[in-house]
């Protein structure tokens, strides 16, 4: 019911005006603290050496890539099923951010994989499914502008986003379902995290910072999209009045 309340654009704008500066400030604090712990306080790994520090950007980026795609799919479902006016706007605004997180994940994964596996890229189940996720983001954004009618473009993109949601659990459980080079989960485990607190602390701080950054940037982009649509509607109304 809370999400239904904020599906109203005017109500969302009021909330975003208050919340966005706080989210931005929290992102700066968490990322600054996370980088200090990651680069200064956290020790080098006994096997990976200094290369392990890539993890503090790679892993949170991977988490955010999945989270943001879930937001895109959720907004698409909201737009198609419940006709919420904000659903498609949120999905449109989130997609480029998610694509950027996914690209960062892929690049840092390659930088991490080279010294660990001896190759920049392997057709590992986890890596391949994340690459598919990146293409889903690109496909969604391409479909938005592929039609003369923006309504048709939005509907086609929403359908793709919803269908692509099946890739999210595949990415999550790929290391358990298939024999892959990628290491299994070491944080979200039933028996607790498998990494030391000196490494877990910067990892969680960076993840929180990325999350707050996403929230702030999403609100900024949604607000800009709402304002753009309002200006477009006013211009259309003025043109019709003149005609």
UniProtKB/TrEMBL annotation:
The keyword Cell inner membrane applies. Its main location: membrane. It is found in: Cell inner membrane; Membrane. It comes from the Bacteria. It is a multi-pass membrane protein. GO terms for molecular function: heme binding; heme transmembrane transporter activity. Keywords: Cell inner membrane, Cell membrane, Cytochrome c-type biogenesis, Membrane, Transmembrane, Transmembrane helix, Transport. Pfam families: Cytochrom_C_asm (PF01578). GO terms for cellular component: plasma membrane. Required for the export of heme to the periplasm for the biogenesis of c-type cytochromes. This is Heme exporter protein C.
């Amino acid at each position: 019911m809370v999400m239904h309340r904020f599906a109203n654009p005017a109500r969302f704008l009021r909330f975003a005006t208050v919340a966005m500066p706080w989210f931005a400030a929290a992102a700066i604090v968490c990322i600054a603290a996370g980088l200090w712990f990651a680069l200064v306080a956290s020790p080098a790994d006994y096997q990976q050496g200094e290369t392990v520090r890539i993890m503090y950007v790679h892993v949170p980026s991977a988490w955010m890539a999945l989270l943001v795609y879930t937001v895109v799919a959720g907004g698409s479902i909201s737009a198609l099923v419940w006709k919420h006016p904000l659903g498609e706007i949120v999905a449109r605004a989130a997609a480029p951010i998610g694509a950027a997180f996914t690209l960062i994940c892929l690049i840092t994964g390659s930088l991490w994989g080279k010294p660990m596996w001896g190759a920049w890229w392997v057709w590992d189940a986890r890596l391949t499914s994340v690459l598919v996720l990146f293409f889903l983001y690109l496909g969604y954004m391409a479909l938005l502008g592929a039609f003369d009618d923006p309504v048709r473009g939005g509907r086609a993109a929403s359908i793709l986003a919803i269908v692509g949601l099946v890739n999210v659990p595949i990415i999550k459980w790929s290391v358990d379902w298939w024999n892959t080079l990628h290491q299994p989960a070491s944080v979200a485990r039933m028996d607790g995290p498998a990494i030391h607190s000196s490494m877990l602390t910067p990892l969680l701080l960076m993840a929180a910072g990325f999350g707050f950054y996403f929230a702030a940037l999403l609100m900024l982009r949604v607000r800009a999209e709402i304002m753009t649509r309002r200006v477009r509607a006013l211009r259309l109304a003025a043109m019709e009045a003149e005609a």
